[in-house]
Prior knowledge:
This protein is an all-alpha fold. The protein has 5 helices and no strands. The chain has helices at residues 16-45, 52-55, 65-88, 95-114, 121-146. Helix 4 runs antiparallel to helix 5. The longest helix has 30 residues, at 16-45. The relative contact order is 0.13.
Amino acid sequence: MMKKLTGTFRYTQWDPWLIISQIVSVQCILYVSLGLILALLGTLVGDTRSLDHIFEYHEIQVRDFGGRMVITAFVINALVGAVTLWYIVERTKQCMDFSCTWHFIHLLICWGYNGSFPTTFSWWALNVACATLMCVCAEFLCLRTELKAIPLSLGPKTDL
């Protein structure tokens, strides 16, 4: 059994329940936030809302305002995802893993929802861009937190 390293905040042993709970949490938060963003944008522009906006890959296109609204919602959700990873995952090294996991699970859900593999360039371009944006922003936030100076307060000024 591995021992806890001095100065770290997590055990070094592999904890599958922690990873599974983090994946489920990230999935739930990001789908709820995507739904809320789409509902808000849809209300503002008078568009009807449905699950098709989230899972139907033909909805993602730049030809009309509805498609651009869906693209905007996905980009905003990628930023929400970065903050979510910062709070839930808290590790710079794991941001890419969790970002790719969310998008891979989204691919599987879209595939099942549509009954066919997503083949449109716009769907793939949007998801690659959003995965990259989520990963880079989350890594930036986590890195800033990890690199904060650790205060070593020994009481009143002490000469070492």
